[in-house]
Design brief:
The structure holds two protein chains of two kinds. By secondary structure, chain A is mainly beta. In chain A, about 0% of the residues lie in helices and about 50% in strands. Chain A has no helices and eleven strands. Chain A has strands at about 5, 10-15, 20-25, 30-35, 45-50, 55, 65-70, 75-80, 90-95, 105, 110-115. In chain A, strands 2, 4, 5, 6, 9, 10 and 11 form a seven-stranded mixed β-sheet that branches. In chain A, strands 1-3-8-7 form a four-stranded antiparallel β-sheet, with no helix packed on it. Chain B is globular. Chain B is mainly beta. Chain B is about 0% helix and about 55% strand. The chains are: A mainly beta, B mainly beta. The interface between A and B is medium-sized, with 25 and 25 residues.
Amino acid sequence: EAGVAQSPRYKIIEKRQSVAFWCNPISGHATLYWYQQILGQGPKLLIQFQNNGVVDDSQLPKDRFSAERLKGVDSTLKIQPAKLEDSAVYLCASSSDRGRTGELFFGEGSRLTVL
Amino acid sequence: TQLLEQSPQFLSIQEGENLTVYCNSSSVFSSLQWYRQEPGEGPVLLVTVVTGGEVKKLKRLTFQFGDARKDSSLHITAAQPGDTGLYLCAGVSGANSKLTFGKGITLSVRP
C-alpha cells in the first residue's frame, strides 16, 4: 500500500515570495491534515479536511496561508507571502476515519526555508 | 488551548538502560497516542490508549494512560540504539477529534 506522498521535499525561498506544497493521501482516506512542525517542536495542526470540506482551520494564518482539497483527494497548501517564521517542515497526514482513535499516516514532509 | 507537556525534553542514555518519559496535561482526552519520529521522516504511530488506567505493551515499550485520562507515561526496558528518535504524545479531544501534539522528547541511545 502506497503511503502519503508529499512534494517537494525541500524548498528554499526568499521572504515575500510564494510557495505551494502538494499532498496525495493514502487511497480511500477521507480525512486529510496539514501540520506545521517548527524545529524542536511538535506538529501544530493548520487545517483538517473531511473529504473536500474543512473541519478545522482555526490555527491557519488565513492572511497568508490557504489550502484546498479538490475532489476530496489531493490537497495543496499555499503560503503567500512567506515570512521568515514560516521556516518549518510541513507535514501532510491522512486517516481512514475521523481520527477518534484511529492512526494518522504521515508523509515525509516538505521542508521550507525562508531567507 | 489544550497543552501537553512532555518531559524530559532531552534524554541521552547508554544501551541497555531503562527509562521512563512523561506526557502531562490539565485537560481530559478521549484517547492519547504516542508516535516516534526519526530525522527526515514523518511521525509513526506506536500505540493508542483509550481507557483510564490502561496499560499497553509493545515489545520493550510499556505505555500507561492515567486514571483521569490527563496524562501518560512511556517506559522503555533495555533501550537499544534503534530506539533513538523523537517521541511525541498526542491527545484526542473535541467533537472533531482534534489531535494536539506535545513538543516531544528527543531520545538518544548510545551503543
